[in-house]
Amino acid sequence: MSDNNQQRICIIDDDEAVRDSTRLMLETCGMTVREFASPREFLNERAFENCACLVLDLHMPAMSGLDLLEVLRAKNIAVPAVMVTGYPREDLAARLWNAGLSALLQKPVSESELLDRIATAIASSLH
User: Fold this and answer.
1) Contact (Cβ atoms closer than 8 angstroms) between residue 86 and residue 107
2) What CATH number is associated with residue 44?
């Protein structure tokens, strides 16, 4: 795997505008980014094999970001993940952390906060 693949950030969000703006922000900061419109698309393409960190929406149709994390963890795939949501739910906190979530951010997310959380998630996964 090349260094470029090791630093690839995978954005999974059903909102195209959010995906586009997040991708542009991360690419402007020198990151390699790949976007997916759904967790199923991400899983079907086995994109987790070349992903350093996930940036995913919590609330998506058919399969939530939390559902995706639980599927990955059940397969022993420990890709670090930063979850973003416009609607945080306290009742999901335990499930989120048990699924190995690195950070939970509320939309709108500042560029500096997102970059910091991604860097922290990647660094902690290397130890």
Assistant:
1) yes
2) 3.40.50.2300
